[in-house]
Structure formats: C-alpha cells, structure tokens
Amino acid sequence: WCHEKMSENGLMSRAKVLTIDTMNPTVKKVEYAVRGPIVQRAVELERELSEGMKKPFVEVIRANIGDAHAMGQQPITFFRQVLALCSYPELLNDSTFPEDAKSRAHRILQSCGGNSMGSYSASQGIDSVRQDVARYIERRDGGVSCDPDDIYLTTGASDGIVTMLKLLMCGEGAARTGVMISIPQYPLYSAALAELGAVQINYYLNEENCWSLDITELQRALDEARLHCNPRALCIINPGNPTGQVQSRECIEDVIRFAAKERLFLMADEVYQDNVYADGCQFHSFKKVLFEMGPEYSNTVELASFHSTSKCYMGECGFRGGYMEIINMDDDVKAQLTKLVSVRLCPPVPGQALMDLVVNPPQPGEPSYDNFIKERTATLSVLAEKAKLTEQVLNTVQGISCNPVQGAMYSFPRITIPKKAIEEALDKGQQPDMFYCMKMLEETGICLVPGSGFGQKEGTYHFRMTILPPTDKLQILLNKVKEFHQKFTQQYS
Amino acid sequence: WCHEKMSENGLMSRAKVLTIDTMNPTVKKVEYAVRGPIVQRAVELERELSEGMKKPFVEVIRANIGDAHAMGQQPITFFRQVLALCSYPELLNDSTFPEDAKSRAHRILQSCGGNSMGSYSASQGIDSVRQDVARYIERRDGGVSCDPDDIYLTTGASDGIVTMLKLLMCGEGAARTGVMISIPQYPLYSAALAELGAVQINYYLNEENCWSLDITELQRALDEARLHCNPRALCIINPGNPTGQVQSRECIEDVIRFAAKERLFLMADEVYQDNVYADGCQFHSFKKVLFEMGPEYSNTVELASFHSTSKCYMGECGFRGGYMEIINMDDDVKAQLTKLVSVRLCPPVPGQALMDLVVNPPQPGEPSYDNFIKERTATLSVLAEKAKLTEQVLNTVQGISCNPVQGAMYSFPRITIPKKAIEEALDKGQQPDMFYCMKMLEETGICLVPGSGFGQKEGTYHFRMTILPPTDKLQILLNKVKEFHQKFTQQYS
Fold this sequence. Notes:
The structure is a homodimer. By secondary structure, chain A is α/β, with parallel strands linked by helices. Chain A is built from 18 helices and 14 strands. In chain A, the strands form three sheets. Chain A has a seven-stranded mixed sheet, with helices on both faces. Mean pLDDT of chain A is 93; it is low at 1-12.
C-alpha cells in the first residue's frame, strides 16, 4: 500500500530502514505457540462471528492459555478489596470494608513512597513485600530459612526467568551457553533462548511413565550437548506445563544431585505450586529438598526458583506479579543482577501488592479468614474435578491417550493422526498437529495449542488444552473434541 | 562466607557455576546512574537515621528520580476511583462514586476477559484502550489520523524503547547497529545499548544555547560513526531529560529532514509531553510535525514515539503504564514485533487501564470534569512554579549555572569544581561530580545524580536535580545546595 501510494504521488520508492532482512535475526527465530497463528485465527473468527458471519459454532472457546479469570474464575474477594483500598485510600474510611483488608492496605501503602502505589518501588521490590515472601517460603518449606535479600519481585514469572537466563549468557561457538529444558516445554523458554542466542538442550520427559523426568535422559542430553556448547543451566517446571505431572521428592533429589555433579545452575519454575490434584501427589519445592539434602548441596548448588500471582487459586495474570528466590548466587553476580533490574525501575506496584497478599493471606481469627478459605478451597476443588473429568473423557476416545493431570492447569494428550492427514498437512507446509488443531478451530470453535509448539518426540502428536472452562462448558468442549477427533479420523482413514 | 563455611564443614570448595567472570559480559557493561551507588548510599543513610545514628541532617531528600508521588504529589482522584472500581467491581453499587467513574470502569472491565483485570489482555494491549489512545493522538495532533493497529501498550515507556532498540540490532563488527543518542541522555538508552551490544553514537546538545539540538552536530556524530558501525536510529527526548529543554517546531522539522536524508529510524521519547512550563515554549509531537511536512516525509520516515503514565500531571510511575505508536513500519517487521511482545504475554492490566484514563479523561459536562481540571491544573502550575524557582535560586550561586527548565521535571545545572577537588576525586578513582554529589549527600542528606551518569562534554560537570519536592522543601533544598556549594568551593580553593 505504502509503495503504491508513493508511486501515485510520483515519489521515489525508498526501502525502509528496518526490514525483515535487516532486523534482529535472533528475534526472527523466536516462536511462542501459546499466542501463535492459531490464536490469531481464533481472534479473527470471533470478529467474524460478531459481524454476523455464519459458522458451525456460536462461540470460540479459548482453551489455549492458562487465563483463569477469562474463563470465569472469580478473584479472591479479600485480594481485590485490599487492591481497591490501595488504589483509592479514601475507602479506608468506608465501614463496609473488613478491618483486616484495611490494615493490610495500610501496611502496603506505608511501604510505598508518599504512601502511593503510584511511586516507584525499590527495583528489587518493596522491602516489606520481600519480607512477607521470605516468611511465606519459610512456612511452606517447614522452617528452612529464607533471606529477604534473596527475593526479587518480578513482572510475572516470565520476567524473572528471562532475567536469569540473560545473566547466564556467555561465550561463542562451542563455548556458547547451553540451557537444558524439558520437552515438552513451556515455550517462554525456547523463545527466550532463541532471543538470547543460547543453545537449547532438549531432554525428553517420559510420556509412557506419566511424563516423569529420567536422570539417564538428562545425562544423554547433557553429554551430547557438551560436544557443541557449554551447558550451564537446567530448567525444571514442576508441576509441569504443558504436561501436568507433579515430581516426586526422589526425582527432585536426583535432579539436584545431577546438577551438583554436572555443575549446572538450577532454575525451578514453580508457578503451579498450589495446583496439585492427584491422590498421592504433593508439591515439594526445590529449595526445601535442597536444604534437606545437607550442606554438601545446600551450600553449593545455585538455584533460582520462580513464583507468580497468575496461577494457583489466584489466577491474577493481568497484574503481572511474581517473585524469584536466588540461592547460593555469587555476591558479585547478585550485585550485577540488582543493577540490571534497576534499569527497568521496578515491577508494577499493584502486582507487588497482590504478591504480598498471596504470601500473607488472612489468618485464622481475622474477619476475612473464613471467606478466603472458602473461596480458595472452592476454586482448587473445582480445578481438581476438572482435571479428573478432562483425563477421563479424553481417554474414552479411540486415538487419544491422556496422562493423569496430576497438577498445573493443562492436559497434554497424545493424538493419533491418520497417515493421509499427515500427508495433507505436510503438503500444506504445516505440522500435522497444527493442521489438526486448525481444523478443530474452524469446525468447532475450540482453540487449542498444537503439541509442536511445546516440542514432542518425533512422530508423536499432541495438543495442550487447559482445564479452565467452567465445568458445564468443559463437558461440552470435551464432547466436541471427541466428536471432532472421530470425524477427523474417519475422514482421513 | 560461603567458602569459609564449606571449609568448616570439611567440604570441598567448589567454584560457582555463575561468577563475575562467566556471566553475561554485556550485562556487566550496563550502568544506570539514576539508581546507582549514590542511591544505594542514600538508602543506607536512611536506615542509619532510622536506627538513631547521628547525622548532620534529619532526613534524606531524594531529588534523584522523577518519582512525583514519592515527593508528595497527589494522584488524580478520578483515575484512582476508576482503578478501585475495576479492582473491586462490587463498588459499582456504591452510590458515593461518581457516575462517569463507574461508566469508565464498566467500559474497561467489559474489554477484559471475564470482565476481570486479572485476565491477560491481548499482547499488544486491550483493543478499546488502543482505540482511545489513537483518538487521543488525533486530538493532540490536530486531526492527523492514527490507527489503533499502530499502538502497542507497554510496561512503562522503558519497555517500549528497549523493545524497539532490540528490533534494530543487526550485524557484527563495522556493520554493527549504531544508535544516536543525545549527550546528556537518560541512561536507560546507554544501558539498553550496552546490554544489546549496540554502538552508542553520542551527539552533544548545546548547553550554551539552552541545550538545543544542532543539525551540524548530528551530522558530525553520524559521519564519524559511519567509519566504524552502521548507524540506523536516532533517539530524541523532548521535552528533554535530564536537560529540561523543549524543542522548537523548526528543530523537529530539521531532525526529521536529517533522518529522512540519512535513512535513520526515529525514536521520539515524548513522556514529558504535558510538562512544558516556559513562556513561548510548546510541545510539538514528532508525529504531527512529520505529517505536516507532507507525504514525502509522512509516507517514508519510520518513527516510534513513546508515552507513559509515569510523568506529566499523573506521576503514576508504579503502575508501569505506557504506549508506543509506530509509524511507517514495514508490515513484516510489525508482525515480528507483535510476535515478540506476545512472549511476555501482556503489559500489566491496571497500567493499561490507567493509560486509558489518561488518554480519555473526564469530559466537559461529566460529573468529575471540574475536579479533574482543577487537580491537573494545580499540579502543572506548581511544577511550573518549581521549575522557575529552581532555575532562579541555582543561578544565584557563584559556580553554578542553570539553563531555564523549560519542561520535563529536572534541572541539569553546570557546576564549577575546584582543581583540588578534581584531583582528590581522581585519586579516589571517582568522577569529580560523583565525588561532589556523594559529599553533598553525606553532609546535607540531599540525593542528586552526578552529570557523569548522563554524559557531558569532557571537562564539564553537572548534576541532575528533580523539581519535584514540595515547594517549601524545595526552597530548603536549594538553599542547602547553595550553602554546600559555597563551602565545598571554599574547602578546595
């Protein structure tokens, strides 16, 4: 259009300064499936529906992203009361707000410059919030001590993860930093590694054994990687995204021993720490296990762990709250980290306030306690119910096989795609599971993410589906997936 | 400590995975004076004071950072009412909130998934907010059209600036991307360029002519840079930070012509667009001037302009709201930009909501209009008063010379440092103006940023001081600066 217009006006056509050929080549390599082409098409379909265009469905159901509130989950009343009080402190005089919400808001505002959430905080985060985070971690980990100086508040967990990866980048060619990530993985990792120009080292989770992590597979991946890069870090997501497994304590010990032996910086993505549903499963933090393994490990293994306000029972993604805890980091490096985060001034203060509430919720005896517990329990038990429902229904479909959703917010079932469909996809230059998901979107309005966006063993196909839609809608969605899969299989057989 | 402890336990001392020698070398090069060593010392001093330690002052006054609320500026009531309503929608039933605040909150919530600020937004930002931003720009620029698709909401302006610089990185050695920045500059630019590994090309503002921008100096800087890198972008801050000048329309036209002729991508940092105080000065957006220069320019020159909720009359830094407008960007690059921002999911939603209120404030006839205008006017006229006061008092001091603070929130006076003081500083391995500011902090509790953190012509010394403290405190602060300077000069003469 621009070119045409210029010609019309008789002006010389001039190449842009910034073109696809002259832009940052590492940015071009970035991919992020959770918001990729399938979601763009979902947005288009929603627009077409709203313009009255006829479709074989009446609404698009977004099961592509872990966005609980968008799927109707209600926020925790206490959290929102405190945020409203902090936003508009005039409300501190309003007698309809409970006293504990007021005292919490008062405490947060006192930690803000000029008693306003509109002030910048310290770049590492508000002191009192970091103290509350430290106490939360101590309670969670059965008393293992936590120093508020080791806590950095972040803009969601993503921000902390990218910052830590950035610190680790070093070397060129065969000395380039390599980072081990699970396959399947959450594509923030592959995207960040691509952008930073690091080597992505894939270790495969064992689908046959409930997406478990196998040390021999870690060793294989590491040994191969050592031939062409310098592996420096090992990333773990527990509970797993997209795979929904919850790691056993033994497995975590093995991983820590492996990291110690192989001198790898450990990064533990623990944003789903409250999302554990399966009987016999329990969340163990890497920090706790590390410290219970004794000083040989707790004094040496470098660990960063990440948490967020976006998941668990809160689902407050839009506030972009989060923290990371840094264990055994070299003091000079920590000073560099503090300097680095100062360039962006500070994480959003409402997100910091929310993080504070998450780690310091109403206590027994406080007026909001009962309601808080009721709301939290209700949200988590509905999620547990939906995790089970998803697994059950998907496993009734021939050609779909789904591991138990032990935790997190996703199922990642394996799907059988007929040979003819694979061929048609490849003819179109599409991954077979992208072809499958795109077709499902067009025919049913259900928006899933193809397994290829997360990585999977060659020749296997999957999709990621959140368990977040309300139970009745989830039931409909699962039935539609079932019908679609049967029809698709028939069509291409 | 760690090493000692290991020895005590008889464990083998083992080097860390991540050390200062093996961390990202570009991160080490990053510097950010606004939160540098002087601010760290200020924090220590505050702690020492609170612990009852005796100092020659009773409080630390932070004039180092443009953090209006921390200095006592009050938020706009309407903005905070709407944010409270959006945080806790139960309040929509509260009759004490004005109807226009409620309808604005209602509209924002309707644009959020599940009607909750806790949902992720589109990565580019909430549609309706981007539409409001576009209409705001059209009004501001006298009807020059603005497409909401060209608007990207950001996490403060810093986020947008770093993202744009990132896109521009390309090439190695003599083909490496170079970016022109003013000296003095806001150190976000130098920090981002260091981290990205780009070449920083300095062009000097003319202190003798009120920090004006001179095209011959741009040309000199560019021609020299072309010998060793590939200059691709030109960054302008208007109104200026740290220098407080407001660019004339003619100057902006010259810059645009220069960018067109030399094929440079223009980045206009316009976060102080409402902060114009001096008679005869007026804010002209680069967008408006570009479009009034006719299609030869408006169809070709690539421009990104940046705005934020942190400055102007709002001063809402903690919310990290902002937007950028992208003009004439290549479509493929724009698709890459959209993909890149999707990795971080979305800017904080409360910051997006606040940005919406800034671009769509109460209108005449609405219940909150009069109070909004009253509050905005009061804040801006107090700032204008303080800008004048700062300039006046500083210019009464022999050895300090201060250009008019035409806009923004800072004075950047030149200071004469006696030869003996320079020698003592250099002996200590300190920049002379760092030595000066550190001494002022220790003796008076006033926290300023040395000019060396922003860059300055060799052999000249400055400091940046915000005009944000309340008028009475600012008066005291200015007098203390005066006394300190006189004493310092005497001591080292």
